[in-house]
């Protein structure tokens, strides 16, 4: 499988499809990541909050590290300078690697100085522990603030993006500032499979609904991070590059936007033990 890539500011190439690992734990995480790597994925996306880095580390130990693109994320409660450094070092230890290709602020935390967080990211970059720095779930306003105070380029903004939540203003701002858009939950956690246009196109192209949605996102110049535990689905989700949607069919999906998120809602549960901010 030959996967197109997108250039990052540090000179690295980001594969346009990665394997998402949210809510994959224990043996399920190991088996799913192994299946993905065997299917030709080289881009693995995890986070300290997913609590599966150790399992992923066990799997990737059998592969050439230079052939992989590995992303992790720091939790919003750990965005003070020293906590960012410690979180990254702990992620590296669990993953069994000397560096991350991409390290993201998982969620913005208005209770902690963004400058402090990005100063820590710059230190990690200078020390070679992190090759590229990015953010996740940032609005255009938050991203512009990060870009203003960062000493290293903000390479990526990983956001919820799928046919029912297309966020044109945010995506356009990322384009204008050379920030790669990654789609977290690119399949709307399967909700979008119910869309009648997605179903019609799946029938017309003899593809799965997931393949239709992922191909559309890639055509929109968005990096996709599908997640599955079913081996056939993992393999099919990567089978995107020897066929394409017509321009007319891409437009049909463009018209399905409902501004309907599956996880990125306006309010947050700030008290959650994993994600929250201490009072």
Helices and strands in order, then pairings?
Layout: E1 5-7, E2 13-15, E3 19-20, H1 26-39, E4 43-45, H2 53-60, E5 69-74, H3 81-95, E6 102-105, H4 114-126, E7 133-136, H5 140-149, E8 154-160, H6 168-176, E9 180-184, H7 196-205, H8 209-219, E10 223-224, H9 231-237, H10 247-254
Parallel strand pairs: 3-4, 4-5, 5-6, 6-7, 7-8, 8-9, 9-10
Antiparallel strand pairs: 1-2
Summed up, what is this model?
The protein is α/β, with parallel strands linked by helices. It has helices spanning 26-39, 53-60, 81-95, 114-126, 140-149, 168-176, 196-205, 209-219, 231-237, 247-254, and strands at 5-7, 13-15, 19-20, 43-45, 69-74, 102-105, 133-136, 154-160, 180-184, 223-224. The longest helix is centred in the first third of the chain and has 15 residues, at 81-95.
Percent range of helical residues: 25-40%
Give the termini distance in whole angstroms: 48 Å
Strand content: 5-15%
- CATH overall fold name: TIM Barrel
Assign the CATH architecture.
Alpha-Beta Barrel
Q: What is the averaged pLDDT score?
A: 96
Describe the global form: globular
Integer count of domains = 1
Provide the low-confidence segments as ranges: none
- Give the strand order of the largest sheet, numbering strands 1, 2, ... along the chain: 3-4-5-6-7-8-9-10
Q: What about the largest sheet? A: 8 strands, parallel
From the alpha carbons, calculate the radius of gyration and give it in angstroms: 18 Å
In total, how many beta strands? Answer: 10
CATH homology group: NADP-dependent oxidoreductase domain
The computed structural class is alpha/beta
CATH uppermost class? Alpha Beta
**In sequence order, what are the helices and strands, one letter per element?**
EEEHEHEHEHEHEHEHHEHH
How many DSSP helices?
10
């Amino acid at each position: 499988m030959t996967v197109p890539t997108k250039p990052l500011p540090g000179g690295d190439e980001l594969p346009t499809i990665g394997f998402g690992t949210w809510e994959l734990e224990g043996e399920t995480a190991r088996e799913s990541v192994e299946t993905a790597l065997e299917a030709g994925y080289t881009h693995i996306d995890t986070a300290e909050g997913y609590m599966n880095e150790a399992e992923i580390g066990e799997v990737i130990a059998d592969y050439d590290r230079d052939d992989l693109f590995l992303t992790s994320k720091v939790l919003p409660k750990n965005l003070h300078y020293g906590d960012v450094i410690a979180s990254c070092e702990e992620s590296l230890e669990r993953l069994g690697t000397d560096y991350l290709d991409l390290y993201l602020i998982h969620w913005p935390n208005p209770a902690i100085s963004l400058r402090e967080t990005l100063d820590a990211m710059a230190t990690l970059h200078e020390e070679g522990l992190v090759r590229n720095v990015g953010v996740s779930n940032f609005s255009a306003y938050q991203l512009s603030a990060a870009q203003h105070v960062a000493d290293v380029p903000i390479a990526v903004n990983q956001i919820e993006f799928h046919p029912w939540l297309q966020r044109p203003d945010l995506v356009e701002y990322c384009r204008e500032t050379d920030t790669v858009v990654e789609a977290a939950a690119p399949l709307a956690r399967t909700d979008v499979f119910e869309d009648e246009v997605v179903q019609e196109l799946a029938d017309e192209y003899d593809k799965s609904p997931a393949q239709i949605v992922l191909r559309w996102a890639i055509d929109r110049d968005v990096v996709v991070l599908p997640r599955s535990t079913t081996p056939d689905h993992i393999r099919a989700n990567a089978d995107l590059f020897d066929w394409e949607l017509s321009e007319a069919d891409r437009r049909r999906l463009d018209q399905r936007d409902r501004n309907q998120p599956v996880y990125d809602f306006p309010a947050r549960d700030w008290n959650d033990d994993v994600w929250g901010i201490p009072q």
